[in-house]
Amino acid sequence: MNRYSVILLDIDGTLLDSRNEISNNTKNLLKRLEKKGVPIVLASARAPGEVELVARQADVHAPVICYDGGLILDENRSIMEDIGMEKGVALAFKAFAEGRFPDVCVSSYIYDIWVVDSQENEWVRHLAKLNRKEPLQGSLSSAVRISNHVHKFLCMGVSRRIQELKEHAEAAFPELDFLLSGTVYLEVVKKGVSKYAAMEKIRRYYNIDAGQIVAVGDYYVDIEMLRAAGMGIAMGNAPEAVKHAADRVTANNDDDGVYIALKGLRFQAVPEKSPL
To answer: Is residue 274 in a domain?
Structure first.
């Protein structure tokens, strides 16, 4: 039986249950694995502050992958990777989405700042409550003055319109990637940003082979990561395409799926890290 040394965990729909909580079984197992020298790397589309809240809830202390790999922070929360779309491209996409899909809520993320057109938008209010993050109301043109790039757009709307936006925007913006992270969520990042690319960064950081990595996820944005890991595990609540991409399928996120997935695997501590 293979031995694994690093675990990559998606957050929403995977580590967190439908109540936004982590089961005690999972917490205790992750704590034992971390004490054994196995890093638990959270890999999410969320902003760094939101990922950090979950890391504290799980009591894990490894690097974190934010914005689907656009921003990676080490265990001391220093920047390992920082990739975003250029200002001009970001402003052009925002204008395109607003003009063609005015019913879709389009917000942007720059480091740990979440910029929205209106704090009273129902999509914004729901997500702010869910992720415990307060948005900044203002224009993107003003916000980009503080940064050389935008890490991510989050488009929220009914499923049909999200799919239509994805199809039209892919043709109009070949320099961007459009990632479905839920039926009503479309993540927009710079071309090449992905959890798979982030996994490669983590692999080199710990000086291990991809075969020593376990990855667990639940949605289309996780497929590349699941395929490339030594053990890719899909949640029971994942779409069929995600399950087909994985080596194994576990129980859903409300039935201890992460705990069940990991408890039967064998792990060993990572070797000493290599400088990047």
So the answer is: no
